[in-house]
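Lab notebook, design round three. We kept the backbone fixed and only want residue identities now. Task for the bench partner: fill in a sequence for the structure below.
Input C-alpha cells:
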C-alpha cells in the first residue's frame, strides 16, 4: 500500500474511549534525562539512525548536514538557557524562541525565512466521579513546533500531550517519515485534533448529565438554583476548550490551502482533513457554549418559579390565618355591649363561622393553584 493510503492509519490509530484510556498521557519527564531534551534523533530514508550513545542536537545536526536526512528534537519545558544553544544551532527566530520558552501562547502559525513556527494547545479530559462547582473538566498544555528543511523541533509545556507514542508510530512507517519534517507536523496536528474529538465526546456526556438533571421532572430536591454553580463551572471549562480550538482553525486552513516550500505537496492535502475535523469540533464547542447558556437560564428560571410558588403559598396561608386573627381581634376588645357577647351559643357559632371561612378560602386558593 502506498504512503498516501497509509497516512491516515499511521497518524490516526484506533482511538479508545478517553474515559477508559489509561496511560495515554506521559505526565513526567524521563528521570534519566538531565536536561529538557527528551529525545534527539536523526532520520534518514524514513528510518531512525541508531547510535551507540544519545546524540546531542549539535551532533545530530552535524550528521544531517554531512549525510542528509532530518533531525527531530523533542524538549519538555526548556529554560531560556537550555534552549539558547539549540536556537543558535538551527537559526530560530528570536520572537519564536521567546514564545516557545515562555509558553501560554495562542494557537497560531508563523512563517519565518527558513522555518515555520506552529503552536498547538493540547486538551486532556480530567476524570471525576461527580461534577460539582469545583470540578476541573479539562487540562491544557502546549506543543510548539519548529519546522525547517532538515529539522523538526517540538517544545512541550504542561504534563499532558506526550509525543512519545506518536514518534514510535511514525518510526514504524518509513515511507511516511521519508517525506521529512512536514509529515511529522501533520502527524502532530492530526494527533492534537483527534484529542479534541475525544475530549468533546467526554464533555458532551457531562453536559447531557447536567441537562437531564435540570429538566428531569422527578429530580431529587427542589429546583432552587443549586445546579447553577456546576453549570457555570462547566461553562468555564468549555470556554477554555474553545480557546484552544477556535484559533487553530485558520493555521490549519493556511497549511492546507497555501503552497509552502517547507510542506511536501503530498502531505499538504491531508491538512485539509485535519482542518475539516477541527471545524467540526469547533462547531461542537460553540454548541456546548450555547446549550450551557440555555441550561443555566432554564435553571435560574426554575429557581425563580420555585420562589414565586413559595411566595404564593405563604400569601395563601397568611390570608387563611387572617380570618381567625380578625375574629379573635374583634372579640378580644373590652367592650360591654357587643353582639353575641353574652349569648350562650356565641362561642361555638363564631368558631364554626371562622372554620367555615378558613375552609372556604383554602378550597378557593387550592382550586386556583395557589396551594
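Proposed sequence:
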Amino acid at each position: 500500500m502506498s504512503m498516501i493510503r497509509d497516512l491516515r492509519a499511521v497518524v490516526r490509530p484506533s482511538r479508545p474511549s478517553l474515559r477508559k484510556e489509561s496511560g495515554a498521557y506521559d505526565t513526567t519527564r524521563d528521570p534519566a534525562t538531565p536536561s529538557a531534551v527528551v529525545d534527539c534523533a536523526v532520520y534518514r530514508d524514513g528510518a531512525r539512525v541508531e547510535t551507540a550513545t544519545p546524540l546531542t542536537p549539535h551532533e545530530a545536526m552535524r550528521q544531517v548536514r554531512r549525510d542528509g536526512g532530518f533531525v527531530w528534537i523533542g524538549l519538555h519545558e526548556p529554560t531560556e538557557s537550555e534552549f539558547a544553544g539549540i536556537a543558535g544551532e538551527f537559526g530560530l527566530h528570536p520572537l519564536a524562541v521567546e514564545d516557545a520558552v515562555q509558553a501560554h501562547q495562542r494557537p497560531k502559525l508563523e512563517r519565518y525565512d527558513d522555518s515555520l513556527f506552529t503552536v498547538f494547545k493540547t486538551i486532556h479530559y480530567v476524570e471525576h466521579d461527580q461534577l460539582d462547582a469545583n470540578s476541573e473538566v479539562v487540562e491544557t498544555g502546549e506543543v510548539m513546533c519548529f519546522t525547517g528543511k532538515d529539522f523538526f523541533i517540538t517544545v512541550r509545556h504542561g504534563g499532558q500531550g506526550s509525543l512519545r507514542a506518536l514518534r514510535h508510530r511514525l518510526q514504524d512507517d518509513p515511507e511516511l517519515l521519508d517525506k521529512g519534517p512536514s509529515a511529522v507536523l501533520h502527524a502532530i496536528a492530526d494527533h492534537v485534533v483527534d484529542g479534541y474529538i475525544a475530549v468533546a465526546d467526554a464533555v458532551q456526556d457531562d453536559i447531557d448529565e447536567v441537562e437531564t438533571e435540570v429538566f428531569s421532572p422527578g429530580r431529587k430536591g427542589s429546583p432552587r438554583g443549586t445546579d447553577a454553580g456546576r453549570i457555570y463551572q462547566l461553562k468555564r471549562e468549555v470556554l477554555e476548550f474553545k480557546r484552544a480550538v477556535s484559533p487553530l482553525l485558520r493555521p490549519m486552513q493556511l497549511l492546507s490551502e497555501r503552497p509552502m516550500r517547507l510542506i511536501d505537496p503530498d502531505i499538504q492535502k491531508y491538512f485539509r482533513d485535519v482542518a475539516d475535523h477541527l471545524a467540526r469540533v469547533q462547531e461542537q464547542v460553540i454548541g456546548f457554549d450555547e446549550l450551557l447558556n440555555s441550561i443555566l437560564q432554564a435553571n435560574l428560571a426554575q429557581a425563580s418559579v420555585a420562589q414565586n410558588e413559595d411566595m404564593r403559598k405563604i400569601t395563601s396561608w397568611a390570608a387563611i390565618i387572617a380570618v381567625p386573627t380578625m375574629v379573635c381581634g374583634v372579640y378580644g376588645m373590652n367592650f360591654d355591649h357587643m353582639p353575641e357577647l353574652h349569648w350562650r351559643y356565641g362561642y361555638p357559632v363564631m368558631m364554626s363561622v371562622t372554620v367555615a371561612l378558613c375552609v372556604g378560602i383554602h378550597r378557593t386558593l387550592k382550586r386556583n393553584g395557589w396551594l
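Keep this in mind before ordering anything: The longest strand covers residues 115-125.
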